[in-house]
UniProtKB/TrEMBL annotation:
It is an enzyme of class 3 (hydrolase). Its EC number is 3.4.-.-. The lineage of its organism: Bacteria, Pseudomonadati, Pseudomonadota, Alphaproteobacteria, Sphingomonadales. It comes from the Bacteria. PROSITE patterns: GATASE_TYPE_1. This is Gamma-glutamyl-L-1-hydroxyisopropylamide hydrolase. InterPro entries: ChyE-like, Class_I_gatase-like, GATASE. PANTHER family: GLUTAMINE AMIDOTRANSFERASE YLR126C-RELATED.
Length: 290
């Protein structure tokens, strides 16, 4: 019997303006970045990008969430502690994902959306920043044996760009990873019939996209004392981009303090692959879709 292709929904939590700004910077929206990664991790899967933050009414056909094998929530510059129509729409979408029982994964704002939708909360990081990379991430006791982090070393770095963080996880959650800057770096959240695995960092983005994000946030980095001026941000971003173009350059990796957990795509995207292989495929088999 020929198995049916996997159906994956990629939910862009960015507003149209934010998507346009990101495309102008790196040539892709956040959803298109996930799309490119998933073409390698899940070749043959049917990938559909949707935009739940947009004011478009119901863009999904009835039963589309139940019919999907997985949902991915992208990052976004929106602040969920602010009352906005876009934020409400994305949170309501995630509640529908939980109700459908479809396995979900999210990075950065995706984790924050999943937490709020299940009863948790998000806050601004105030003067703290993770800009470029989250350093010295470590698994909690629960995280050391959790399949989301399978294959990660005890301590690792990952691409990360965020000014908000999860303040409180929902009740039915497992904290999987943390570091000295942000207490919730990875978590499993259960709500209703749904299971969500998510990370505050960005396993999906390339070093090219990290460099572009640094340039986009140059003023903020200077304001918060991470760089003395815009020229310093530009020089740092240029090093990151050069390592993207030549990932084997040990001199650049040494200057940036990075190893193969970041520079090698198969290792950088490990959580996404783990989610597909260790949650989506088993759930799909249980539903009789394989």
């Amino acid at each position: 019997m020929t198995s049916k292709p996997m159906k994956i929904l990629i939910a862009e939590s960015e507003t149209p303006a934010a998507r346009d700004k990101r495309r102008a910077s790196v040539g892709r929206s956040s959803g298109e970045t996930f799309q490119a990664v998933l073409r390698h991790i899940a070749p043959g899967a049917e990938l559909q990008r949707i935009t739940p933050a947009d004011d478009e009414g119901d863009t999904l056909a009835a039963g589309a969430l139940e019919a999907a094998d997985a949902v991915f929530l992208t990052g976004s510059p929106m602040h969920l502690y602010e009352e906005t129509a876009e934020g409400r729409r994305v949170v309501e979408f995630m509640r529908a994902v939980y109700a459908a029982g479809t396995p979900a994964f999210g990075s950065c704002a995706g984790l924050q959306v999943a937490a709020v939708a299940a009863g948790g909360s998000v806050r601004a990081m105030e003067p703290r920043r993770e800009a470029g990379f989250a350093r010295r991430l470590y698994a909690t006791d629960a995280g050391t044996s959790h399949p989301l982090l399978a294959g990660r070393p005890p301590v690792f770095d990952a691409p990360a760009i965020h000014t908000d963080e999860v303040a409180r996880l929902p009740e039915a959650s497992i904290l999987l990873s943390a570091n000295g800057t942000t207490a919730v770096q990875a978590a499993e959240i259960r709500c209703g019939k749904g299971v969500f695995w998510g990370v505050q960092y960005h396993p999906e983005i390339s070093l090219f996209e990290v460099a572009a994000a640094l340039r986009r946030q140059s003023d903020d980095l200077v304001e918060h004392g991470l760089a003395p001026d815009a020229e310093a941000v530009a020089r740092h971003a240029a090093l990151v981009e050069a390592l993207h173009e030549a990932p084997g350059r040990k001199d650049l990796a040494w200057r940036l303090g990075l190893d193969e957990e970041v520079t090698v795509p198969e290792r950088r995207t490990r959580e996404i692959r783990n989610f597909v292989e260790r949650l989506v495929l088993p759930t799909r088999s249980q539903r009789g879709r394989a």
